[in-house]
Design brief:
Structural class: alpha+beta
Number of strands: 17
Strand order of the largest sheet: 5-4-8-7
Number of helices: 24
Distance between the termini: 59 Å
Strand content: 5-15%
Largest sheet: 4 strands, mixed
Length: 638
């Protein structure tokens, strides 16, 4: 139950932003919604005057369709039963002439139930004048008629709703009405929201008017009678057994708390009634679920229905454990280009520490970070498959340790100018899935990897070996991928291998003193690759022998190196003056190999680090190397 308490606290800590709409990256709006409210996607917006007269109507743009609506316990959890919402709702509820135009309803006339419920609100001491205007208009029973005349809805020659807009109708009218682009089934299923224009009041939209929110909250609280001990607040409050759905999106009917199976085995045999298992007050349930919806929209990451969510109850921003190092604040504001000795690692580590310090500066007393993974096994039931509470400072320390240990030099991202961005850091977990399983990996595989990687990040556990092995195998087979895909896979795999062999302290910069067998074989392969590439014409795109034989080289290095070296001879003959440099480098690295190490024993992933570092060093310009040497001499490092 701690997750409910944390969500409830999050809602209480963010009361000032209730009803304040924000936009996501796709321009869709979302907000922290008030108690006794939920969200729906509206397709039609009807504007009225303060006397309850029809003014205009329009089809709602998809990016502005998210609508905060009042709801009751029954309407908030409705599925197939015709239970009306108190104000905004589908045509079958709000339109008195819905049945006259061919609309169908499972109940005789849901509109009567809707008007009865709306009248009770309007007759109460908490009534709102704009809501009364809506009631006055809807009592006329001509909403569909007005929408047809306004060319929002369309009917056939018999005055019946046109279910589908056929090609024949499109040719006849010369266009396709907007309503058919938004409603997936019949236009008669459209959801309607209301706006009331009052002279002197700037806000006409009832779903944005906070006074309307407060009016319904006070009214509905007065109707709640049953009270019980709330397990979260520890107080006697109005209780509920109906909890919110639509957690991941507006059409999501899966619930986290549900006990309506009185004939099955949900709680029978342990408890006499569902509330004996857990009693949660209506207010706590509403606030906790509304906070969860808001957080999912605001910062959740959803893949194939599984939601990954990290948040702090103090509303201060926390780093995303699934993101790469570029997501940290200010990590690349002033990048020091250092690659000599330990100075490169120290410069990078200092940047990570400074970035994490930016999240630590606003720590409050015992702040907490919550990590939650949600998934629905069935359309009606959702589960918390992972939940963890951590002290914020400990969480930040773990994130800092991850970015300082699982890093490498990458070149697979692009900046705002569509230029390749070179960055040093830890890869995002989704990119790790790319490296381990390829770009065509299913969402099911990707979300499984992301869940398995989480303990490696927040608990400092080892990366699962099967993930590392899979990435190494793919990085060792470059001929099976396009060049850009292999380069991305290689750098990410190097980061994973570096993390796996963290104690040995491998760095991006070339370590000419490292005599590890696998590292040296990787260097030899890189030299052979660059040597052959240097002898080819600039327009020649074919793979070198080193790249073609890379997979076999990782399995049988001695035998394969003999083949690669013999294939180098024609290319060595073309190099001229450059040959001396490459030959001396081959001799230098080869001499570091001990005779007993020159065998066909398969190479570990460490050979990729040697390959990458050596190739990176060979492709550096002479000017870059001289600049690095000068910097090191100035600081007395060499």
């Amino acid at each position: 139950m701690t997750w409910l308490r944390q969500l409830y606290r999050t809602y209480e800590n963010n009361m000032e932003v209730i009803g304040e709409f924000q936009k996501k990256h796709n321009d869709q709006e979302f907000a922290l919604i008030p108690v006794s409210h939920t969200t729906q996607q509206a397709q039609i917006e009807v504007s009225l005057d303060q006397d309850g007269n029809f003014v205009s109507a329009k089809v709602v743009d998809k990016n502005e369709a998210s609508t905060v609506i009042p709801c009751t316990e029954a309407s908030g959890s409705r599925t197939s039963s015709p239970v009306p919402h108190p104000l905004h709702d589908k045509l079958m509820y709000v339109a008195g002439d819905y049945l006259q135009y061919g609309g169908t309803a499972k109940k005789t006339n849901p509109h009567e139930d809707y008007l009865k419920q709306l009248k009770a609100w309007c007759d109460s001491e908490y009534a709102h004048p704009k809501v009364k205007s809506v009631y006055t208009y809807l009592c006329k029973g001509q909403l569909v008629k007005d929408l047809v005349e306004a060319k929002i809805l369309y009917v056939d020659e018999k005055g019946r709703f046109i279910e589908k807009w056929s090609k024949e109708l499109e040719e006849q009218y010369g266009f396709r009405p907007d309503i058919y682009r938004l409603v997936t089934s019949n236009q008669s299923d459209a959801f309607v929201r209301f706006a009331v224009n009052v002279i002197g009041e700037p806000e006409s939209r009832l779903w944005r008017d906070k006074s309307v929110y407060e009016s319904f909250i006070r009214y509905y609280e007065s109707t709640l009678q049953v009270k019980d001990l709330c397990y979260i607040s520890g107080e006697e409050r109005s209780s509920t057994e109906r909890h919110a759905s639509r957690i991941r999106h507006a059409a999501d009917m899966a619930k986290l708390i549900s006990a309506n199976d009185t004939s099955g085995f949900t709680f029978r045999g342990r408890f006499k009634q569902s509330k004996d298992a857990a009693s949660i007050s209506y207010e706590v349930s509403q606030k906790a679920h509304n906070a969860l919806k808001w957080l999912v929209e605001k910062q959740g990451y959803t893949i194939d229905g599984k939601v990954f969510l990290v948040w702090g109850t103090d509303n201060h921003e926390v780093p995303d454990p699934y993101a790469d190092t570029t997501s940290l604040h200010g990590i690349y504001d002033e990048v020091e280009q250092a690659t000599v000795g330990d100075r490169a690692h120290q410069a990078y580590a200092n940047q990570v520490s400074l970035a994490i310090a930016g999240y630590k500066h606003d720590l409050e007393y015992q702040p907490e970070v919550n990590i939650m993974i949600l998934e629905a096994a069935t359309p009606g039931r959702m589960a918390i498959v992972y939940y963890r509470e951590m002290n914020k400072e400990l969480f930040l320390d773990r994130i800092e340790a991850w970015h300082k240990s699982c890093y490498w030099l990458h070149r697979y991202k692009k900046d705002e100018n569509n230029q390749i961005l070179q960055f040093k850091g830890a890869p995002a977990t989704r990119d790790i899935a790319f490296a381990a399983y390829g770009s065509k990996a299913s969402d099911k595989i990707v979300k499984g990897l992301m869940e398995r990687m989480l303990p490696s990040i927040v608990d400092e556990r080892a990366i699962p070996l099967d993930i590392v092995r899979s990435a190494i195998n793919r990085a060792s087979n470059p001929v099976a991928m396009e060049g850009w895909e292999w380069e991305k896979t290689l750098s990410i795999t190097c980061a994973l291998v570096r993390k796996t062999y963290e104690k040995e302290g491998f760095e991006v910069g070339l370590d000419v003193t490292n005599d590890n067998r696998d590292y040296l074989f990787g260097r030899l392969l890189a030299i052979a690759d660059v040597l052959e590439r240097s002898s080819l014409d600039p327009d020649e795109k074919r793979a070198t022998n080193a790249i073609r034989y890379m997979n076999a080289f990782a399995q049988r290095p001695q035998r394969t190196w003999t083949i690669i070296q013999s294939n180098l001879q024609p290319h060595q003959a073309k190099l001229g003056a450059k040959l001396k440099y490459f030959n001396s480098l081959l001799d230098e690295v080869g001499s570091m190999l001990k005779p007993e190490d020159f065998t066909d024993k398969p190479l570990s992933g460490l050979y990729l680090l040697g390959f990458y570092s050596q190739r990176h060093d060979l492709y550096k310009s002479k000017k870059e190397k001289e600049a690095e040497k000068e910097q090191a001499e100035e600081k007395g490092e060499i």
